[in-house]
Amino acid sequence: MPDITLYTLPTANNAKISSLLELLNISYEYRFLDVSKMEHKEPWFLKICPNGRIPAIIDHRRNNFAVWESGAIMLYLAENYDTEGRYLPKDPKARSEVIQWIFFVNTGLALTLGQLSHFLNNAPEQVPYAIQRYSDEVTRLFKVLEDRLEGREYLVGNTLTIADINALPVVRTTVVVGFTLAPFPRLQAWTERVRADPQILKSLRPPSGEPDMIEQLEQDITKKEVIFGPSRKIIEQQFKQERILLAQYCNV
Ligand SMILES: N[C@@H](CCC(=O)N[C@@H](CS)C(=O)NCC(=O)O)C(=O)O
């Protein structure tokens, strides 16, 4: 049996975890959840991840311990499996910086890109205010990364850390929201640098090795509708089901 089971969907958040598992040479298996059947909201999965979202892992080496929230998973894997501190420095200040950049990406950039993608690709109606608000915020957050990368090759220190591994799959989703990194040359160069690592490149793809959704869009943006059309229906259906559940619990 592999050491880790990774519960996931083929999304950006998945790649963060599989990248680190690959780099640390940890044996793992994928367990893809079927969102169209709301599998990620089923009671058995809520016992693993109370938030009913992916990614989540089970560590079979440590008595089937469950970890969820991608940032928490990155830290857990580094603390338990990266004993040499290759990707999470042992020096407390450098370590704190890594944690700061993980929080910044997960609570700011990932969330904002997700909302922008929702309003551009999934919302049943166009809401210009929302699109403007989230586009401006994505631009601002990219500028924060651009400034950080002045005179440095990686987000913290001189080597690849989980700060970069966590950020890359999120920054890559720019293509989904029609952004280009051209105004952010340092961020663009960093993306290429981090992605050049063969294990990271491998983990950005699903187990079949086929190009993932982002890579397909980078090659041919006209595929956007083919990719987002079906997911729009799933999101609509999910929205209705979540409303029923919320009405039961909170009377909304
Ligand atoms: N803050 C969470 C975000 C998790 C998240 O939003 N996951 C998305 C996929 S990237 C998901 O599970 N979506 C399914 C849903 O919302 O029902 C993390 O970083 O793990």
From TrEMBL:
Residues 1-85 form the GST N-terminal domain. Residues 91-221 form the GST C-terminal domain. Belongs to the GST superfamily. This is Glutathione S-transferase. It comes from Caulochytrium protostelioides.
